[in-house]
Amino acid sequence: MNANLLELQGVHTHIGAYHILHGVDLAVPRGQLTMLLGRNGAGKTTTLRTIMGLWRASQGRIGFGDQDITTTDTPQIAGLGIAYVPENMGVFADLTVRENMLLAARKAKHAGQMDEKRLQWIFSLFPAVEKFWNHPAGKLSGGQKQMLAVSRAIVEPRELLIVDEPSKGLAPAIINNMIDAFAQLKASGVTILLVEQNINFARRLGDTVAVMDNGVVVHSGPMQQLAEDEELQRTLLGLAL
């Protein structure tokens, strides 16, 4: 079995006339949490969207397990066990928290068919999801919406969880809660790829790290190595952790 659950090899992505990714090489090891870092505009979100088939790779290969998913449609990619939480969270504001969760639980036709044991586990990670179960999702705070978005992504078992900037705009207490939740998710065996700007978040959670700049990965390796090397941090990110 390949040690990497997800691999990108020489991936290019064009959006209209714009050439955004210029040959991305990225490996996401099984059972680990990989941080994808970089300045704004480096190509991180485009990389995630390309993995999910929302934008097509114009060159290169994307492998998931032993499958080539480079040209696979998004619904089929999701069906392989990959969940994606976009930066805007994608919460349906007019639906209740329960209805949002039910939409993601594709094997359930009504709330009573959702896996109760799994729901209780999710409630233990994100108590607000249980507290506001019958409330409209649009009335939740930013942090609560982020908890709902992640909860929705894991309402069914997933092999790979991809999340774009989960701590963006959140209060420190909510960020700590999110860090604890991702640590528990990783301990449960879920492989995770996170785009993040909060450096403390990255340092506390990451096993491996890839740093992007101008549409390519310019550094990859253990997160601890980057966290301990201030000169490397300044070179790659323009700041010290």
UniProtKB/TrEMBL annotation:
The keyword Nucleotide-binding applies. PROSITE patterns: ABC_TRANSPORTER_1, ABC_TRANSPORTER_2. Residues 6-239 form the ABC transporter domain. Keywords: Amino-acid transport, ATP-binding, Cell membrane, Membrane, Nucleotide-binding, Transport. One of its GO terms (molecular function) is ATP binding. It comes from the Bacteria. Belongs to the ABC transporter superfamily. This is ABC transporter ATP-binding protein.
